[in-house]
Amino acid sequence: MSDRRVLVVRGNREFLLAPGETLESDLGILELPEDVEPGTTVETHLNEAFEVRRLRGPDLFDHLERTGAPMMPRDIGLVVGHTGVAAGDRVLDAGTGTGVLSAYLGRLGVDVTTYERDPEFADVARENMDLAGVTDLVDVRTGDLTDELDDLEERFDLLTLDTADAPTVVERAPDVLAPGGFVAVYSPFVESSGETVAAAREAGLSGIETLETIQREMDFDDRGSRPSTAGVGHTGYLTFARFTPELE
Hints:
Blueprint: E1 6-10, E2 13-17, E3 22-25, E4 28-31, E5 41-43, E6 49-53, H1 57-63, H2 73-83, E7 90-94, H3 100-107, E8 111-116, H4 119-132, E9 138-142, H5 145-148, E10 156-161, H6 166-170, H7 173-176, E11 177-187, H8 190-202, E12 206-214, E13 218-221, E14 224-227, E15 234-242
Parallel strand pairs: 7-8, 7-10, 8-9, 10-11
Antiparallel strand pairs: 1-2, 1-6, 3-4, 5-6, 11-15, 12-15, 13-14
């Protein structure tokens, strides 16, 4: 059974709890009912009210256990938008890490097979898939995808990579993608993206493009509006390509 934890929220404070669990805070003791449903209100013994919410994508991003720097929601949005990945599609992924991308795709109804080299990271990712409720759609495998390419029997609609050896896998994209399938490679370094582009060209892929992901928050006050000067808007680079074999 998948993890049934929910968020209990009051203002800007939120806690992740399982049905039947007890929370002790300065607002009192909250005993979450076993049959609690999202959308209801629960109270502590001091009559302080909390709203119960089911976990959504942004909540998962905040609460999944981290094993490194995960892809940001803005990056995942670009992957979904540029490839059109949808329910029923098959995704081959490498560099699972925290599993944020796999969790988002699984919640879209996508079947994901993802490889993680580090056994401890893979175990954490499996726990995160349980929290996301996608264990029936996301298969987290421990191992190196480059060692498994020759043994893969099915074709995939999307190949997603967040690994240092991504160019090596991209060279094999025609062997693993269904006709019309996409490649999406994330990298924090533009040099790696250049190597991926070269590999995609060598593999005969089409529609090759690299995008830098930048997001700026806007500030509004009585003086006027402008882009925020706080934070870093850049996250990384995404390279996209498509397998469009020529008709014989």
